[in-house]
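User: What would this chain look like folded?
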Amino acid sequence: MKKIDLSVQISQSKWRELFGAEQLAAAGHIGTHFDVMNTAFDFENTKRPGKIIDVSGVRERDIDISDVGATEIRAHDFVIFHTGFLQAVGYGTPAYRIDHPQLARDLLRLLLEKQVSLIGLDAPGVRRGDEHTPTDQWCADHGVFIVENLANTGLLLQAAGQRPFTVYTFPLSIAELTGLPCRVIAEIESPA
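Assistant: Here's the prediction, encoded as structure tokens.
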């Protein structure tokens, strides 16, 4: 089986640049992390079946239901969107923080209805600006966590193809943070 690390590695200089004198709470939102908001991360979420959806061709509009195509999404899946954005503009740049792709509300509603466990993407959030935090809270209230700043999603897309894969998510255990840094590893089943 092949394992692919989907976590952004943060250098000391990038840490200082992004969060120099900010509070510890802000540190929960650096690098690959999920927004736990005011809910608890269920340990069942540490191992989930993965689905990756290539939406790298979507620009100038929200990613919507029509972009999911024939992807079969089931309850408890970890659905990963490959936008290509992190690779294109670089983690932590002003463009990365402000101009990132976002998921349409109807697509998010569909994912919640399907009872996925986690939604991940190679961008800093599923919605931008003032909609970011309320959307994260809405998802968390429905037991769905948003994993932001995934790396190597293009590599995962290429390596997995249509083969099943499992995603392991290991958050740090830090109390009272709205975001928890985590290590995310995809394990792809070997071809038969």
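The radius of gyration is 15 Å. If you want, I can go into more detail on any region.
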